[in-house]
Amino acid sequence: MAQAARRVSKSAREVYRALKNRSDYFINKVHSNPESLGKIDFAHYKTALPGLKMVDEFEQAYGKVSIPYPKDPQDVTSKLNQEETKTLADSANLVKQLESEKVLSALYLKKLDELPKLADITMEMFYDYFPWTNPIGEQPKIFPFTPEFQPENATLNESAGFNRILRKIGLNIKV
């Protein structure tokens, strides 16, 4: 119970104390009773009350009294045992998964330590190391950043027009 008390959150401690007190009350009540029926000295009563058949009847009735150990008709105990074994197996699997994640996290931290210092990293380096953070993604853009000048949108006529512009400014490059 001490382990359970340590695991209870501060907000639930009063409820836990009330539950513990009630549980202790019932446990003490059960343990205050004897484990088996007490012995009655019927010989003493026969000598003290001679001629009464009532003492013999009580002795016979008391001898027939037997209180059986409580049975579990719904088989709750075995269900709890099965659930406990399942929970222990699930916990063991969870521990294995967390251990593997711990190893992966250690490797990730080791890789992060190999990176250049944050003050030395440029945006290009950052996007090379962490490509999923690049807002442009897999399709880098070309200046001017309008859609008609991007390679994926170029048609033959636009390329020809673009080549004319390049010739006007003195560049003989064909796109």
From TrEMBL:
Domain of life of the native organism: Eukaryota
Which is one GO molecular function term here?
Answer: proton transmembrane transporter activity
Provide this UniProt record's keywords sorted from A to Z: CF(0), Hydrogen ion transport, Ion transport, Membrane, Mitochondrion, Mitochondrion inner membrane, Transport
Query: Translocase among the record's keywords?
Result: no
Cell compartments where the protein resides:
Mitochondrion inner membrane
Query: Cellular component per GO?
Result: mitochondrial inner membrane; proton-transporting ATP synthase complex
Q: Name one GO biological process term.
A: proton motive force-driven ATP synthesis
Keyword Membrane recorded = yes
The family this protein is said to belong to: Belongs to the ATPase d subunit family.
Q: Which PANTHER family match?
A: ATP SYNTHASE SUBUNIT D, MITOCHONDRIAL (PTHR12700)
What is the protein named?
A: ATP5H
| Species | Bugula neritina (Brown bryozoan)
